[in-house]
Write a structure and sequence with these properties.
This protein is an alpha+beta fold. It has a single domain, classed as Glutaredoxin. A 4-stranded mixed sheet has the order 2-1-3-4, with helices on both faces. Helix 1 links the parallel strand 1 and strand 2.
């Protein structure tokens, strides 16, 4: 099964960098969305998660707030 992964990030967020690195290390394709440069995406992220902080991941419709490696691994079947 192909995972549909969106990662809402900002360029300066250390947890965002770690999250993207973790996904790359596990060969997970993802769409990176910079909410600092895209106000619509920031609003979408807030509506999905109820959070203003990043990173927020949308993995096959499941929302993960923050770099929760265990939850991310579980949702991706790693």
């Amino acid at each position: 099964m192909d995972n549909k992964v969106k990662v809402y990030t900002t360029p300066t967020c250390p947890y965002c960098i770690r999250t993207k690195q973790f996904l790359k290390e596990n060969n997970i394709e993802f769409e990176n969305i910079d909410v600092s440069a895209n106000q619509e995406a920031a609003q979408e992220m807030t509506e999905k998660s109820g959070q203003m902080g990043v990173p927020v991941l949308d993995i096959n419709g499941e929302i993960v707030v923050g770099f929760d490696k265990d939850k991310i691994s579980q949702l991706l079947g790693l």
